[in-house]
Hints:
heterodimer, A: 13 helices
Amino acid sequence: xxxxxxxxxxxxxxxxxxxxxxxxxxxxxxxxxxxxxxxxxxxxxxxxxxxxxxxxxxxxxxxxxxxxxxxxxxxxxxxxxxxxxxxxxxxxxxxxxxxxxxxxxxxxxxxxxxxxxxxxxxxxxxxxxxxxxxxxxxxxxxxxxxxxxxxxxxxxxxxxxxxxxxxxxxxxxxxxxxxxxxxxxxxxxxxxxxxxxxxxxxxxxxxxxxxxxxxxxxxxxxxxxxxxxxxxxxxxxxxxxxxxxxxxxxxxxxxxxxxxxxxxxxxxxxxxxxxxxxxxxxxxxxxxxxxxxxxxxxxxxxxxxxxxxxxxxxxxxxxxx
Amino acid sequence: xxxxxxxxxxxxxxxxxxxxxxxxxxxxxxxxxxxxxxxxxxxxxxxxxxxxxxxxxxxxxxxxxxxxxxxxxxxxxxxxxxxxxxxxxxxxxxxxxxxxxxxxxxxxxxxxxxx
Lengths: 321, 115
């Protein structure tokens, strides 16, 4: 390969990463400059490919050079990347658990040999759709922030420094009441609650849609209700204490971890509602809650372990010899 | 664009980065094309990598600090840059800031060496 070919390739590699309106102009200038540089390195002679290669290596990676000419707006802004990664992992994990749950519990799986691959294809399509949707949401949020929301700010308008142990008592009480009411509806049964509230006037189709699967109601539901009740007790305990203590943090993390594992197990074990699509939506919700709980509890436990380890090291260092 | 892990090289690069714009502007009171500008700066002891200087000229032009035109005299066509009217005012102000900063830094570094 000749020196000229190398330079032409390099210029093309840089300019193809630039907006179309800039390509020709920057390409012509870059080509002219690189040729000048090359001629300067081989005065009086024909520059060889090795000299051109050394020049281009020094000039920099085409992507880096293109970025120094034009920096495009990010699809996901840097400070959103962590949240995006977390949500993407939860979505992918939840859909995988849901797909596996359907594959294991559907009676059609035993009679239809193509059932497994069909579920895998549907799960993959749903995963890609969800990730695409998530990407669009983050892109819109980033675009809005860049164009309209990132205006003037004032240090006095920033939120006050939060005491991590402080508890918003009214909020905690409201949250405990809300989740308790939700749990009560689940324990009694959504169909029974609807029938009771409407004095039996609710359409039968609606009641059927929200009737529990008999096996779930008899075997798995009591365990789930028990775990949910225990989880609700933690915010109640924190509301009473007025502060988030280390013990309550640890109990909450362990309970959330157990609840997440139980939710996954129940999604995989069989149906929750007797009718579709209520059953699938419920399983998806359970898988999403399970994924969120798994990640948040592992993060919380890791933080507790790190704090505990830090405290032990500090204690050992400050202990008298 | 040489990447390095050496802390001295990194910090020196940071130090020089702030001076590169002013160095380039100082030589653009008359029209220069990228290569001749780099040579002129190198001859005065200010070596700037090609991959840093050439995109910088385009960015300064986009900001209205420089104006440019293609010239096709003898030899290959070249894009010549020179200070715009705004660029001249900017250069004048930046030069004053540089002198003031230089005086402050001299004092600080001398104090640091004496302690």
